[in-house]
Design a protein that fits this description.
alpha+beta, Rieske Iron-sulfur Protein, 3 domains, five-stranded antiparallel beta sheet, four-stranded antiparallel beta sheet, binds FE2/S2 (inorganic) cluster
Length: 407
Amino acid sequence: MSNEVKKNYTKAELDKMSNAELAALGTELDDVTVAYRKERWPIENDPAEKRAAAGIMTWLIISIVMGIAFLGVYLFWPWEAKFHGDEGLLLFSLYTPLLGLTAGLSLAGLGFAIIQYVKKFIPEEVAVQRRHDGRSSELDRRTTTALLNDAWQTSTLGRRKVMKGLLGGAGLMAGLAIIAPMGGLIKNPWRVRHEMNYLGDGTLWTQGWSMARNGAKLYLGRDTGAIAELHETGKGDHYSTAGVSRLVRMRPEDLDAASMETVFPLLEEDVNDGDKYDAERDVYEQHMHSLHGPRNAVMLIRLRSADAEKAIEREGQEDFHYGDYYAYSKICTHIGCPTSLYEAQTNRILCPCHQSQFDALQHGKPVFGPAARALPQLPIDIDEEGYLIARGDFIEPVGPAFWERKS
Ligand code: FES
């Protein structure tokens, strides 16, 4: 630290020096000039000092109480989502504001206490130091330690046991307020959480199409965008989703060559279109579950026949397509955005998030951008009535690069 060593000190000489002497020596050796220094409370037992300490302790107590309150709210407050008309909606709607309020006050209390302590108890000082290069010598290390000791002693925190305890407690509670919510992010990815449905079974590598594993017949459902319909009756008007088919089956001829359609899994028992249409049936909720499945969206692409002839199939997926029709997961293998853009001229699929491009003629292989893995391909076919169906589930997890994936 110091360029110019003013004196060589032996270990014995340094051992003999008091902390104050070592601190003064360190200041000198470091080329530090103390331009101004003033103790905050030069008179012992000053009542104003006690008042200042009480104010700081009040902030620390607020911080601790709010930290405990935060943990209480986080662990015990009813957090399950409630909707209009549900019992407990008010309590649920207070959950997030209370978390924010208690965590905020806990951190703010600690922050105010620290600022107040520095302003009211740490000696006022203006010091100037010249910059030096190189590593520190033994002498510098010893004197720096002495300076830190001096700072600790002059801060008077060492003798303020109650405040020290409160400061530790407030720091702990404020720290917990930050760390505890992360507990909610810890999840066992292999744990099955519910029966297989449109959302999979709760593990990361299942989704709506995984129902095909259990032998369920799944159509490639086209989203009609249909919503509740207005019914006029003698007793007044009302909206109903009965007879509204959000998802409908598709036939190959529903798609032009060189075009793309986003499709979703549609269970045979949830079909309400064509010859199976029943105006009284209400399958709207099931269809919405399929649409809301975060990994369900699939791009059904119909290639031009001339292009399809050039398609290169991936090993093990040679029969996954149906004629010129290829179905790829819409979830980008980079970080999961919808790869919504299909460019018919080049047969490339583009993810708008970070511009990854995938080649529809080469089994969805990434050809540009940060994505490193191919888009999973859904095996498809048509049934005896000519509707497009899934022949099975994806053979690899959908979405961002899982460690289970080999491609
Ligand atoms: S999420 Fe698709 S490129 Fe990043």
